[in-house]
Design brief:
It is a single chain. The protein is mostly helical. The protein is built from five helices and two strands; from the N terminus they run E-E-H-H-H-H-H. A two-stranded antiparallel sheet has the order 1-2. A hairpin with a 2-residue loop joins strand 1 and strand 2. Helix 1 packs antiparallel against helix 2, helix 3 packs parallel to helix 5 and helix 4 runs antiparallel to helix 5. Homotrimer. It holds the Pfam family Cob_adeno_trans. It is an enzyme of class 2 (transferase).
């Protein structure tokens, strides 16, 4: 089997249900998710310390879920209900993890600079790529119907990366650096019981 097909030499690429231009917003969106997945893999490779084993396991799950999101965005033909892979349970689990990791870092009052440890800086890169994918998906859903849970998942994922970067710094005993001109923008609020 050859890896190259030559079918994209004219600037088109295959999606599930047809072909589109390689610079189509759909391709930009799931291409950015692919880019994100590569950076998540780099973060995973940097998590060799035993105290990061649970985070590493979560990131490996997220890599599979990013493939699900990208696959769902690649569907253009919808003669019947597509077999979407992005599920509400994935979003619910991210919310559980966000709450869990948020407890590990000190309370936040001001904006912080991305960084601290090298690993936290890398996770902040994952966060910003997630935000870019989210913006591209927002543009795509203005033009075409897409699976709405992909947008929700990516929105939650950027929050996940933010709190995990802070949790990593806390575990490594490295302080987040507050943005020195930040006002107090975060205030403690009691969570409502459901």
């Amino acid at each position: 089997m050859r890896l190259y097909t030559r079918t994209g030499d004219e600037g088109k690429t295959g999606v599930i249900g047809g072909r589109v231009d390689k610079d189509d917003i759909r391709i930009e969106a799931y291409g950015t998710i692919d880019e994100l997945n590569a950076f998540v893999s780099l973060a995973v490779a940097k998590m060799e310390a035993p105290l990061l084993a649970d985070i590493r396991a979560d990131f490996l799950i997220i890599q599979h879920e990013l493939f699900d999101c990208g696959g769902d965005l690649a569907i253009v033909k919808k003669d019947k209900e597509p077999p979407y892979k992005t599920k509400q349970e994935m979003i619910d689990q991210l919310e559980v993890k966000i709450d869990q990791y948020m407890e590990e870092a000190p309370p936040l009052q001001k904006f912080i600079l991305p960084g601290g440890s090298e690993l936290a800086a890398l996770i902040h890169i994952c966060r910003t790529i997630t935000r870019r994918a989210e913006r591209q998906i927002a543009s795509l859903q203005k033009q075409e119907d897409i699976h709405p849970l992909v947008f929700k998942y990516m929105n939650r994922l950027s929050d996940f990366f933010f709190v995990v970067a802070r949790a990593v710094n806390a575990r490594l005993a490295i302080q987040d650096v507050e943005y020195e001109r930040s006002a107090i923008v975060f205030r403690e609020t009691k969570r409502e019981e459901h």
